[in-house]
Amino acid sequence: MNAKPFQKLDRVIHEKGRMGIMSMLAAAPGLSFTELRGTLDMTDGNLTTHIRTLQKVGYVAVSKSFQNNRPHTTCALTHEGRKAFSEYVGLLETIVKLAKQPRKPKRKRTTVNA
How many domains does the chain divide into? Predict the structure, then answer.
């Protein structure tokens, strides 16, 4: 199998926790911190760290407000984040297709004895 597609995988998205965040945000216009935390079963600190990493590369936008006098943090994918995630998923699909292709049998070397 060709290793080139694997080398193109976005390492920021590829981490399990960040892939979960990106997947959830790709399916919604925005989600609250508590929705992400609960669905992904992450601690506050772990989720915060992953969101900061995604925010640093420009994939996630974070907005903070108050609801009923309580802080409310909402996350959403940026245009760049949607594009990066779409490319990431496309690359994963390519890898799966390559893995399903039948492998060519290796040629046996024949030696001629003189």
Answer: 1
